[in-house]
Design brief:
It comes from Acidocella aquatica. The protein is of the alpha/beta class and 239 residues long. It has 2 domains: 3-120, Fructose-1,6-Bisphosphatase, subunit A, domain 1 (Fructose-1,6-Bisphosphatase, Chain A, domain 1, 2-Layer Sandwich), CATH 3.30.540; 135-238, D-Maltodextrin-Binding Protein, domain 2. It is 38% helix and 23% strand. A 5-stranded mixed β-sheet has the order 1-2-3-4-5, with helices on both faces. It has a 5-stranded mixed β-sheet with strand order 7-6-8-10-9, sandwiched between helices. Helix 1 packs antiparallel against helix 2 and helix 5 runs parallel beside helix 6. The protein is globular and about 50 Å long.
Length: 239
């Protein structure tokens, strides 16, 4: 299978494993999140080592290996994005599988197992048309001040949601129009969403308008903007 097909297969299978754990009734809320992180990560790591043994991997749940810095192809994964939401049995959590090539987010799959949906960087996704009032996604627990201020200036409706992957995919699904984040993230939080959004023709950048670049020595990548291209100029101008 090609890289996009592999990314989807990994995201789908990890999502099924996570749902099985969630539905087992054997874990409390916090223990469920920890178990989910470990189980999904173990599967993804073993599968990637089997299917793409020559590629490097950067995972939230693994000790970083500096050897990845000299690699052209690096899989960047978050086995469970939205651990809190997963533990609370909500649907706004995700599995992120991405492949960065020479620092660019080329391949991505974001599974939303609670919704039975996976979106990938394969061609063909059509973003639904915008509504009359812009809708801006924000964290349901700690909305970033910049996002709230921009929403106010745009007259946008705030849409609280959990994981980064769920928020980014909400733009692709037509549930919202703008995902602006400035509160701190790491490469595994946004690489897969960025790849999927770029493939769908959306604007994807840092909040200063510069491109998202991956496989850095420090994986901290604190901000991003995902939105319709026609909205990007105004949002960036307000920032």
């Amino acid at each position: 299978m090609n890289d996009t097909e592999l990314a989807r297969h990994l995201a789908d299978t990890a999502g099924k494993l996570l749902l099985t754990l969630q539905q087992s009734g054997l874990f409390g809320e916090k223990a469920l999140g920890k178990a989910g992180d470990r189980v999904a990560n173990a599967f993804i790591m073993e599968a990637l080592k089997s299917q793409r043994p020559d590629d490097a991997i950067l995972s939230e749940e693994e000790k970083d290996n500096a050897a990845r810095l000299s690699a052209s192809r690096v899989w960047i994964v978050d086995p469970l994005d939205g651990t809190r939401e997963y533990g609370e049995a909500r649907t706004d959590w995700a599995v992120h599988i991405a492949l960065a090539i020479d620092g660019a987010p080329v391949v991505g799959a974001v599974a939303l197992p609670g919704l039975g949906l996976t979106l990938t960087s394969a061609a063909g996704h059509v973003v639904p048309p915008a509504g009359a009032t812009p809708r801006m996604l924000v964290s349901r627990t700690r909305p970033a001040a910049e996002a709230v201020a921009v929403a106010r200036a745009l007259g946008a409706e705030l849409v609280p949601m959990g994981s980064a992957g769920a928020k980014a995919m909400a733009v692709l699904r037509g549930e919202a129009d703008i995902y602006l984040h400035s509160g701190g993230q790491y490469e595994w939080d946004n690489c897969a969403p960025a790849a999927v959004a770029l493939a769908a023709g959306l604007h994807v950048s840092r909040i200063d308008g510069s491109p998202l670049v991956y496989n850095n020595e420090n994986p901290y990548l604190p901000d991003l903007l995902i939105c319709r291209k026609e909205d990007a100029g105004r949002v960036l101008g307000l920032l």
